[in-house]
Design goal:
The structure is a homodimer of 292-residue chains.
Chain A lengths: L3 E2 L2 H19 L7 E7 L3 H17 L2 E7 L5 H12 L6 E4 L9 H7 L11 H9 L7 H12 L8 E5 L6 H8 L9 E5 L6 H5 L4 E4 L17 E4 L3 E4 L7 E4 L4 H5 L4 E2 L7 H16 L4
Parallel strand pairs in A: 1-11, 2-3, 2-4, 5-6, 5-7, 7-8, 8-11
Antiparallel strand pairs in A: 9-10
Helix pairs in contact in A: 1-10, 2-10, 6-7, 6-10
Chain lengths: 292, 292
């Protein structure tokens, strides 16, 4: 059996090329989508993420504004900045790069963003609408995974999907998307996490296994059944003296081992990763359509 | 093995007796919890539900106000009524009895209720907060099921809970409660529904099986494993000429058959049913504490 490699990079490029065209057409209506990114502190990883996001914006014709504050900035100040962006007509999406310094309450910050500008899909009202089945901004990584499945025509209807990981950003919204009465929903879904007993008994049941735990290569070949579709959300650095940088990137799944049994699998890197920013761009575009 | 009967009636009485005392103590602070119930049209079942709710209020010392409108009342009118109750200081909880006549958009009505007075836990912001793990009003039936498990000391930690049914009122909030990092959470949870294939293969895995489908006696003994804990949310009428009324009430589970294999089971009636109104009373009390 040949294992299909699910290239998120390919799907992302396909979607971005469509999106670029749509954004270009919006100019006829005098609309330019705008994204504001707030960064507090100088976490190097966060800076890289923010750069990738603003680069994606400029390539697609989305206006972006990056606001960088020192890590001793008060919560009050950030809330005021959000209020300003909420009222700024050039801005359709507001994103606060996580994590924030510990003196700032993340949930307070998220709850201050107008739900209609919450392109990350983290505001409780967007989370709630997703669950209820109403139109909402959906967290970018789970939304991107649905797009990968769509692109490769991997139906979820009646399938047993097992999710490992219960984060607010990936596991929970993924779960709540997949059982919905919708074309790429209607799955029987199981959510596992650190307290799950006999994890391998559950993962072996999966027709589609989605892993987002941040634990390098924790899913091994003996934990999956033949023909499984694997979606690996993890990106972990592990030491590797044979590499120039001294490390290599691996997922939460032991790719080489599991590949032999899987009918399809996302690689790391180049799998789910590229989809996240793409969906952020899609959400920002979608938000700008309000101005039509 | 003796099968434990999980009497929701008993748990409800226990909780209500505590609650009555707490509400009585609130009087020292000059606080009387208040619940407003809106009924549109004359659906006989809805009338019975509304009566049960207001009766429960009066027994516990909660002020209640029932507003009954004819079924040709406009959506606009109901929205105005909600606005009034949102601003009414004597009212801590607002409940709109479902279903509404078809010319009224249920989600519009629910979204108009102030989240802090949404004692049914149906507003997207309460649903979202529950998912994220923040303090929220939780839909009464799932909240009541957690109370039954607590009362009978049935731990969910690391257990495999299977839920059959994906309604906004029961299945979805039940799912999102049970995987949370909390004392009666931390379960591995699977959600099944009408599109699930091989349902009996999934239900057989359950340590705890929660059924809310509205399909009479659909879960039979061959679909569960020995020692399972069964929570039956269904209340269905089936014809029975031996009864005076010509029908009897049964759950979604074939009680007599399944009882032999279950270690514990909720009966119908007297199981989950009595908990729903009790949790509504608890939520209304909780809401009134804002006034302290």
């Amino acid at each position: 059996m040949e294992t299909k490699i699910l290239s998120g990079k390919k799907v992302a490029n396909f979607l971005k090329s469509n999106l670029k065209e749509k954004i270009s057409e919006l100019k006829n209506d005098g609309i330019v989508p705008g994204l504001a990114v707030i960064l507090v502190g100088d976490n190097p990883a966060s800076k890289i993420y923010v750069n990738s996001k603003t680069n994606a914006c400029s390539k697609l014709g989305i206006f972006s504004k990056t606001l960088i504050y020192s890590d001793d900035t008060s919560e009050k100040k950030i809330l005021e900045v959000i209020d300003g962006l909420n009222n700024d007509k050039t801005i359709d999406g507001i994103l606060v790069q996580m994590p924030l310094p510990s003196h700032i309450d993340e949930s307070k910050i998220i709850n201050r963003i107008l739900p209609k500008k919450d392109v990350d899909g983290f505001h409780p009202i967007n989370v709630g609408k997703l669950v209820i089945g109403e139109d909402a901004f959906v967290s970018c990584t789970p939304a991107g995974i649905i797009e990968i499945l769509k692109y490769y025509k991997i139906s979820t209807e009646g399938k047993h999907v097992v999710i490992v990981g219960r984060s607010n950003i990936v596991g929970k919204p993924m779960l709540n998307l997949l059982y919905q009465k919708s074309e790429f929903g209607n799955a029987t879904v199981t959510i596992c996490h650190s307290r799950t007993k006999n994890l391998e008994e559950i993962t072996k049941l999966a027709d589609i296994l989605i892993v987002a735990t941040g634990r390098a290569e924790m899913i091994t070949a003996d934990m999956v059944k033949n023909g499984v579709v694997i979606v690996d959300v993890g990106i972990n650095r592990i030491e590797d003296s044979t590499k120039k940088k001294g490390y290599r990137l691996v997922g939460d799944v032991d790719f080489e081992g599991v590949k032999e049994k899987a009918s399809a699998i996302t690689p790391v890197p180049g799998g789910v990763g590229p989809m996240t920013i793409t969906m952020l761009m899609m959400n920002t575009y979608k938000s700008s359509l309000r101005k039509k």
